[in-house]
Amino acid sequence: MTAAAILAETERRGIRLRTDGSMIDCRPKKAICPELLEAIRERKPELISHLQQSASRPIGCARPPEPHRRCPSCGGGLQRDDADNSPCFTCRWSREHLWPQGPQ
Questions:
Q1: Residue 9 burial by Cβ neighbours in a 10 Å radius (0-12, 13-18, 19+)
Q2: Is residue 61 part of a domain?
Q3: What is the spatial distance between Cα 79 and Cα 65, in angstroms, rounded to a whole number?
Q4: What is the pLDDT of residue 33?
Q5: N or C: which end of the chain has fewer CB within 10 A?
Q6: Are residues 52 and 70 in the same domain?
């Protein structure tokens, strides 16, 4: 198994890999099968190198921050999929399910 395949498999299983010097810490340990553990041991130097490089990069540098947008009804934050000047999910859901004819 290649180092890239190991990283993809650990991500798929929800396993977090961290490095501390020459050691690799895997959490949660229960999610690691013996075959995956053996593959991690075989590719340990490559994995440590990759983990150290990815840890040194700034988080979120690939995408600029989104402008802060607010729901016009409640003032809560809007999600990425919400259109500008539209109510947030909670307000839309409330209008559709709790007050279909409007608040009374």
A1: middle
A2: no
A3: 13
A4: 92
A5: C
A6: no
Residues 81 and 93: beta-carbon distance below 8 Å: no
Grade residue 59 by pLDDT with cuts at 50, 70 and 90: low
pLDDT at 38 exceeding the cut of 90: yes
Helices (H), ranges, the chain: 3-12, 34-42, 44-56, 89-93
101 inside domain = yes
What are the φ and ψ backbone dihedral angles of 16, each rounded to 5 degrees? Answer: -100, 125
- Are 88 and 49 part of one and the same domain? no
Range of the structural domain that residue 99 is part of = 66-104
Site of tokens 């259109």: 83
pLDDT above 90 as % of the chain: 19
Residue 41: predicted pLDDT: 94
Are 8 and 50 within one domain? yes
